[in-house]
Every structure is written in structure tokens, then in C-alpha cells.
Amino acid sequence: xxxxxxxxxxxxxxxxxxxxxxxxxxxxxxxxxxxxxxxxxxxxxxxxxxxxxxxxxxxxxxxxxxxxxxxxxxxxxxxxxxxxxxxxxxxxxxxxxxxxxxxxxxxxxxxxxxxxxxxxxxxxxxxxxxxxxxxxxxxxxxxxxxxxxxxxxxxxxxxxxxxxxxxxxxxxxxxxxxxxxxxxxxxxxxxxxxxxxxxxxxxxxxxxxxxxxxxxxxxxxxxxxxxxxxxxxxxxxxxxxxxxxxxxxxxxxxxxxxxxxxxxxxxxxxxxxxxxxxxxxxxxxxxxxxxxxxxxxxxxxxxxxxxxxxxxxxxxxxxxxxxxxxxxxxxxxxxxxxxxxxxxxxxxxxxxxxxxxxxxxxxxxxxxxxxxxxxxxxxxxxxxxxxxxxxxxxxxxxxxxxxxxxxxxxxxxxxxxxxxxxxxxxxxxxxxxxxxxx
Length: 438
Ligand code: ADP
Ligand code: ZN
Fold this sequence. Notes:
- The protein is of the alpha/beta class.
- It has helices at 6-9, 13-34, 36-44, 66-71, 105-121, 140-152, 164-174, 183-195, 200-203, 218-228, 341-349, 388-406, and strands spanning 87-90, 100-103, 129-132, 155-157, 178-181, 208-212, 231-238, 243-249, 256-258, 263-268, 282-288, 299-305, 307-308, 320-321, 332-334, 337-339, 354-364, 370-378, 411-415, 430-432.
- It is globular and about 75 Å long.
């Protein structure tokens, strides 16, 4: 597999640390001069670039959190005047104002560089046809993959999300070798292929899928690999840092290599904020070392993961991050018990006769305890006539498995195949009907 930038991706770790430290000091000087928010924060914490004698001194710098971005909406954290901005993106922001990110021309070049590394890592070359079904627009997914694929010199099909029948037609007619989209939308495409009776092995040229923007599991990977006849690899990123292209799995799929020459990672205890030893699970904190328009310093991503120590078989020295295990803020508290949606997914996908489509519904009737209902689609087999007993027994198995893993009682409904809503982008699996404001 080609290594896009060997001088960085294979760099000796000691040289990499020296480069990071040097860049960190420059970054601090840069934002101190240009962004009042950081100038204030550094002054209050009494920290200066000279205090950074080693990377351990990072912990002296205050965190930046999501609400800091919101408080400075829209352009308050930008370090350049508007006429130096080449582009603006924003995250979906389901409630209230979106999170805004600005890019200078150099930032876009950086994005092209990290995305070219990511796509190369997944085996994309100039001869590939990339069917890019991430949404185009303010969302970073579509244009992020686009800029990297162009940089590599691959052929891009900028199809964006939606119109699934047309996606399937184009996949076949154009002979795409690479598909990029959210894992949940990849499932929707796989379903449509199955519906139309298209044999992926003979009628499609697809070889690899690069999926991200939302959490997914190993079972989901196997599912997608089988149904689409591809190798499915994980990509990670977030608007606040740059978009997709922060970390990517190589062909060994043993964690995602993080581009740490430009994005400096830490793992901290989500409660105390204290840095955790290498290998422990916690919240990922990222610092952009070279961005111009909107650098962020010690940004708390709210994503839970860990850094994987040791070398990767591909030879890259870049540290790997484990598959994101959820967000520190997506944990549901039900009757006082912490419930992680991803644990529910893992449990469901380990049970036969279920489709990887589910919804988690939390409700609270007046003056009653919270009620957790899991709706999961069964396979066609469970809905054939005469299969009622089998359906009931699967329902009981699911209920028991979830009660055991979560430690609370849940009610389970096995729904008909294809009855739950599908998403073109990020799936919405949790529906919290509690009015927690009152
Ligand atoms: P929004 O904030 O609207 O969801 P973003 O695209 O900026 O828009 O979302 C970034 C977030 O998406 C990350 O912080 C992370 O929680 C999630 N995410 C991105 N890639 C992955 C991935 N490969 N696995 C799990 N979660 C991911
Ligand atoms: Zn590797």
C-alpha cells in the first residue's frame, strides 16, 4: 500500500516529538497575538510558550470546550481577517447554532494533504474511481473526501448523499472501486443492492469502503464487508479540528493512525481532566499544530477512545487511536444507571436473526420511572408465516441479553425488516422523549 508522505508517516518518534514541541510553541505565540480568547485564557493560567519545555507541559494549558466555540459564534475564534478566509464549514448542530470552522488557502492545502494520506492508507491510488456519498455542503464529509481524492489524482464521483436507487445505478455503471459515506448509509445502499438482486461480486467493481462520521462496531464492519464485497475501513474527524482526515485505519485495521505531526492528541479523564497514561481509555483532546484560520488548543472532543501503544505492521510510526467507543455526552442516564448506546448496538449485533437497524427510545410518563424501549428489526425469516414462536424467542433472548449487559430492565420490540427510518448521513438511533428541562 502506498504511503503518501513517508517523511512524516514513517518519521522517527523522537524527531516527531521535537517537531510537535516546536510547533506547539509557535502555535501558542500565534494565537496569543491573534485571538483574544486564547490571550485571556493563557494569561489567566499564567502560561507562556517558554513554559513548554516538553510535551508534558501541555497540561498547563487550559482546555477549549464546545461551549467556547458557541460563545464565540460565528467568527470570534478566527485568527485571520475575513479576507484571508478561503472557505467556511459548519457542523450540523441539531440544536441551536452550528459550530463554525474557517479555512485559509493553506488550511485547505493541509486538509488535502491529510485526506490524501488517509485515502492512500486505505489503498486509494490515481487509477481509482471514488464514489463519494458523504453529504456535500456545509458538512465537512463530502468536500473533505473530495479534496483528498483530487489531490491523489483519483477520479471523483461527487454524488453526495441520498437518492439511493440512483447511487446503486451509478455504482454499477461507472464502476466505482471505492465508496465513501457514513456506515449507516452504506447499509442502506447494501439493502438497495440486495433488493434489486444485484450480485456485488460480478456486477460491481467496489474494493474498499471508507466509513466514518459516526460510531460503528466490528460486527458492522463484517456486515458491510460481506454485503458490499469490500474491505471496510474507519476514518475519523470533526469539524472543529478540520473535518475528516484526523485519523484513518491502514489495511491492518488495528486502530486509526492519527496525523500527529499536525494534530496533537492527548487522552484525559473526562471527569477530572487529568491526562491519562498511554493506553488508557478516556476523552480525546486535540490541538491543531499548524492551522491558520481557526487553530484550536487542547480541544475536548468528547469522543471516548484510547491511544494504542506499539508499532503497526504497516510500518507507520504515527500513533493509532482505537475505534471511538462513544461520546462522553451521548451517555444516557436511566433510573440512575449509565447506559451507553454503543453497548446496546454491540449486544444487538451479536444476536442472530436481527438486522443492524435499531432505535433506542427513552420515555418518562408523568411521575414514573424512565422507560427504555429498544426497537430492532428482525430478518425476513422472523416474519414468515408460522415464525411467530421463533420471533418471540428471539425477542426474549434480546431482552435477557440487554438486561444482563445494561443492568436495567428494558422492553424490546422486534420490528419488521425495513420498517425503521433510514438516514442518508449520520443515523439517529437514540430518541429521548423525556423532557429533562423540567
Ligand atoms: P456534528 O458535530 O454535527 O456531528 P461533525 O462532522 O463535526 O458534525 O461530527 C464529528 C463527530 O462525529 C466526532 O466528534 C465523533 O463524535 C463523530 N465521528 C466522526 N468520525 C467517527 C468515527 N469514525 N467513529 C465514531 N465517531 C465518529
Ligand atoms: Zn498501520
